[in-house]
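*** Fold description ***
***
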Amino acid sequence: MLQALGLSIDAVTVYRAMLDHPGHGVEQLADNCGLTPTQIHDCLDELGQLMLVRASIEHPGQLRAVDPEIGLADMVARQEADLAARQAQLAASRAAVTRMVADRAEQRSAHGERLLGMDAIQARLEHFARTAQTEIIGVQPGVQRPEDLDAARGQDLAALARGVTMHSLFQDAARNHAHVATFAHTLLSHGGEVRTAPTVPQRMVIIDRAQALVPIDPTDNRKGALHVTEPGIVTALLELFDQAWNTAVPLGAGRPDDPETGLTDHERELLRLLGTGLTDEAAGQRLGIADRTVRRQMASIMERLGASSRFEAGIKAAQRGWL
């Protein structure tokens, strides 16, 4: 498990040996771990960079292992801080892309066009599926209707059969709807890659990293779509997708509770959204769940915190470092 924190297998072995035998030098560690002295030195350098070893006061010239409760906890804290920074970057990128698309939505140029009505959108999606050469990227916020997924199934499978790479990003809420989960598993079984996240960017389809389809109105994708081919906008959409994809979980893998807080990623995102001032209904829409589910999940979080109000829960969550 420590490999997930960036430690090599050999470094983990040496770290454990140093904890068990604090007085051992390089030669003894080499014998104990089945490694050469050179490998021990490399592992000590690695552990030193991660601040898991430090100079011994009692034995000058030797290193000692830092207690896991301190060293490993600090590593987890640094990774959590990095993740929070990436999530903040994602939120900023989402807002920038939304503004950019909105600014361009009223314009029609040689680089894109407006598609009004679901028939026009469906026709363009079918054309994309037939003409894609290397990759199809799809982001699906909320829960799609069964008929919309049925319309997409055949063309997506045909593209996969031609060898086109397909990356599909759904919200975590989709795992709880049988028709969406069945569609996602179908893509997965035919070679597609499917991931989910508590919140995802706006709906988009990107073909061969060169052209994209985004809704004119992000709150109602049935009003129409904008077909974009301008490199600047397509690149911004790709960066937004890549950030969301890199923090999403592959379909079939669960989202384990955070061992330090007992929170899932979904619950942490809910706390964050409500902390920004969103109502239960607005937060539920962002997460793809009903507002009654939001209330039930918040009640569970408040019980774990021993809080009698949401305001108190927010204060206690911040004090414990949950946010």
